[in-house]
Amino acid sequence: MTDLALTNFLIRTGDDCLIVGHRLSEWCGHAPILEEDVALANIALDCIGTANALYTRACDLGGGRRTPDELAFLRSVTEFRNALIVELPRGDFARTIVRQYLFAEYELLLFEALSSCPDPEVAGIAGRTINERKYHVRHCREWVARLGLGTEESRSRAQAAVDELWPYTAELFQKDKLLEELVASGVLPGLDGTSAEWTDVVSRSLSDASLVVPADVFQHVGGREGRHTEHLGHLLDEMQIVARSHPDGKW
Amino acid sequence: MHDDVANESRFQERIDSGEKIEPRDWMPERFRHQLIRMISQHAHSEIVGMLPEGNWITRAPSLRRKMALLAKVQDEAGHGLYLYSAAETLGVSREDLIDQLLDGSAKYSSIFNYPTLTWADVGVIGWLVDGAAIVNQTMLAKSSYGPYARANLRICKEENFHKKQGFEIVATLAAGTTEQRSMVQDAVDRWWWPSLMMFGPHDNDSPNTAELMRWGVKRRSNDDLRQHFVNITIPQAKAVGITIPDPELRYNEESGDWEFGAIDWDEFYRVIKGNGPCNAERMKARRSAHDDGRWVREAAAAYASRDTVAAEE
Ligand SMILES: [Fe+2]
Ligand SMILES: [Fe+2]
């Protein structure tokens, strides 16, 4: 039972990484400066790499009945368990950077907690991921500052991004049966306090960049139960088209 | 005037003895001019070259392929950066060079004006297009201009990975389902001739070649490089059962060369003049990335000057 719960947790965490990595990869060749083509591709690669590692462990725990590629390319929209924030369209550069910043701060806390997971494989993946996420946080936080303090236009675009994305942030810390079970059985360390810590860190960076954190807005949830926005279906249509068109194909 | 003649003969002697010319060294204006043209065209090619394959990152059929392709396209952006830096050593700015690309006055490799229609194109581009680029860039790594030679040396290391990955995709598809096999053959049919055109016009139609070779910027002629590329590629095609779309292809026992049919130079010049299938689209993509990114660059500049102001206060 616990194995199944851990498997499901790894898959949904992998889904977050894959979908956000996919969104970032859409920038490749279209970034505002060449250095950002490199940087966004780098972060995308880290995220998709983490997804692959988490799926691989999930598949091993699941007895090898599925492969990581099957998880990525053959599940339908309602089977994905990523949080809604990662599937939203990439939007402008401000939207992409703000989303990645908010998400990377969450991931950093998550992987720090997971680095003491009793499953040594998971702890290993988490340990390797922490440094990457520290870089993501640093890179995106620097851009948040540039955009927030740069020009009137960049500030208003960054603020619009914060306002649009904030209603999707609580889902990252949403407690559900799966998490409770994993914490109760000692497979996951308690994540109590991470939400407050995240809010603290993120609020400080945003206000340092003269951006206003929205107060008490409605929070959307549903991704963890497969209740997604319309955007995910389009993303999957594109991501899965080649794999699904050749069911017997090896790549 | 007298000095120029003396300088020029000293310059040629250095080149003939295999010395590298470095940014602070004396060089003829025309040498500088030709290098800026060549290096910036090369840089632009890396950047525009991100587009045809970049549009398959979101559709790559496995996690491994998705990561490899993303890493590859990222490398190409890095190549652009090395090359713009090499060009900047000659006294031009990246901004000005990019403006020339966007206003259509600078060229980039015509190969990127062809469309990528199926996943097999990603493999075939890695195999043939990166393969041809390696042949060219291996020569340029021995170029007489130091910064350009060193940029190409770094680039070649990464290009070899690209070619290896590309060929691996081709080999996998060629051993795959009927559909996959016909997909990869079709991609080779479309990319073969444009790949041969990557080496440029025949030597007798290439106005710059003699001068560039005398200056050691290029070490081998277009036709020579093209022949070398064909010679190494045909055995690879045979190894995976791919047919090269050239009925006149023959092995010449005496020379050891694979002789090939006539290249359609009308097509070559048509695409160079801007009438290839994707010229307009590639430029549109680059221009809109540039225009959409303007506010970001302005914000970064404003933020950076704010830092300096703060430091001065
Ligand atoms: Fe390249
Ligand atoms: Fe390449």
Structure notes:
The complex is a heterodimer of chains A (251) and B (313). Chain A has helices spanning 2-25, 34-61, 68-73, 84-87, 93-114, 120-149, 152-165, 177-184, 194-208, 230-245. Chain A has one domain: Ferritin. The model of chain A has no long low-confidence stretch (mean pLDDT 96). In chain A, helix 5 (93-114) packs antiparallel against helix 9 (194-208). Chain A starts with a helix and ends in a 6-residue tail after the last helix. Chain A has 251 residues and is mainly α. Helices cover 67% and strands 0% of the residues of chain A. By secondary structure, chain B is mainly α. In chain B, 68% of the residues lie in helices and 2% in strands. Chain B is built from 13 helices and two strands; from the N terminus they run ααααααααααββααα. Chain B has helices at residues 2-16, 29-48, 50-54, 63-88, 94-102, 119-140, 146-174, 178-197, 209-214, 222-239, 265-275, 279-292, 294-312, and strands at 250-252, 257-259. In chain B, strands 1-2 form a two-stranded antiparallel ribbon. In chain B, strand 1 and strand 2 (257-259) form a beta hairpin. Chain B is globular. Chain B starts with a helix and ends with a helix. The mean pLDDT of chain B is 96. Chains A and B meet through helix 1, helix 2, helix 3, helix 6 and helix 7 of A and helix 3, helix 4, helix 12 and helix 13 of B. Bound molecules: fe (ii) ion (2 copies). One fe (ii) ion is lined by residues 76, 130, 159, 162 of chain B.
